[in-house]
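User: I'm new to structure prediction. If I give you an amino acid sequence, what do you actually give back? Let's try with this one:
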Amino acid sequence: MQIREFAEGDWSQVWTIVREVVQAQETFVYDPEMTVEQAHDIWIEVPPGLTVVAVEDNCVLGTAKMGTNRPGPGSHVSTASFMVAADARGRGVGTALCRFALDWARRRGYAGMQFNAVVESNRSAVELYKRHGFSVIGTVPRAFAHPALGRVGLHVMYRDL
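Assistant: Good question. You get back a string of structure tokens that encode the predicted 3D arrangement of the chain. For your 161 residues, that looks like this:
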């Protein structure tokens, strides 16, 4: 598996992943009715941010976006988001993307990385982030409407770099 910068020719495969994840309504606070254009605007970062893909045999297995969490006085903290195709889950794609994002942020001199809205019922993501040094620093109760579990919390997670 290779992780490389997103190229516009990757979009059709990335859109398939984004649409699948968002329409499941289990892990992201994005509108499940978003259009392909809206998804592109949300997911594809402009410099100094970066969007990448995890590719194997010309197949996009997952994607990540990373950048500054907030501008101005908060610009020393980075953020990232990750999506993995359903048929590629459990193969280390998310782990590889998370490591890539952390290395990217360190190289750019960020002081830390913050995730603003990790759905607490997304146990695989929460555990992955904890394995990479993140802590839950707060939870907004019942802030996410999960289709099967009802309202569940959204974690804010952070780690120093």
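You can read the tokens as a compact description of the fold. Here is one thing that stands out. The longest helix spans residues 93-107.
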